[in-house]
Amino acid sequence: MAKKDKQKLQAPRAPTHSRIPPARLDALIEEAIVDAYNEAEQAVGFHAMIEQHLAVPFETVVLGTAAIVKKIDVTARGHVVAICYRGHERQAIPILELPRPNPPPIGWEWIEAYRRWSKWLVGGLALMSAYQYYEFRAIDRPLTDRQMRQLRALSTRATISRTSFSNHYEYGDLKADRRDLLLTCFDASLYFAHWHHAEVAFKYPKGSVELKTLRRYAVG
């Protein structure tokens, strides 16, 4: 392959850098698995993120031979793989076994986040029991089309109607502040977490309730 043609084949490369901060990887992991209910769905979430952000094609070395990574796929068993080509030969390589090019392509940090998540599973550290439930109700008026679009952008799995929003999370969390949602869209909310935290909240028009009356129900 001519040098000029080879340069055309290469995707943009990220700046060479040292270890990615764990906090950054944790943030990527949370983004990838936020709406996933089990390990298989988490893997699919990572596949979507890697496919979206990783710049392909790029060249790497597989078993001592140069290969071109042209796409990312996920197997029926939920393993994310890199589709590599050596000439006309096609091969699927588990993405965690893919050598890191130097410099790495743009988006390589998502592979490192996937690697960190995989270690969590092996070490039994995955967020398996972080169950949280959210429910919101609109009483005075139905949600507008704009509000419903905003809510759908928070979750593809939530149950949403003109008067309600509900969803539970086991591997992530609501991508919004629940109290902000209550103030902007709803009149009542319920939140429950498996660590025995429960919260019921209501929104009242200003001046409609006397604070002195409410204080008799205050704890502490």
Output the keywords.
disordered N terminus, four-stranded antiparallel sheet, 220 residues, 2 domains, alpha+beta, 7 helices, five-stranded antiparallel sheet
How would you summarize what this structure contains?
The protein is α+β, with helices and mostly antiparallel strands and 220 residues long.
Could you please describe the fold and organization of this structure?
The protein is an alpha+beta fold and about 220 residues long. The chain has two domains: about 100 residues, no CATH class; about 80 residues, no CATH class. About 35% of the residues lie in helices and about 25% in strands. The chain contains seven helices and nine strands. A five-stranded antiparallel β-sheet has the order 6-7-5-8-9, covered by helices on one side. The protein has a four-stranded antiparallel β-sheet with strand order 1-2-3-4. The chain is elongated and about 75 Å long. The termini are far apart. The N terminus is likely disordered.
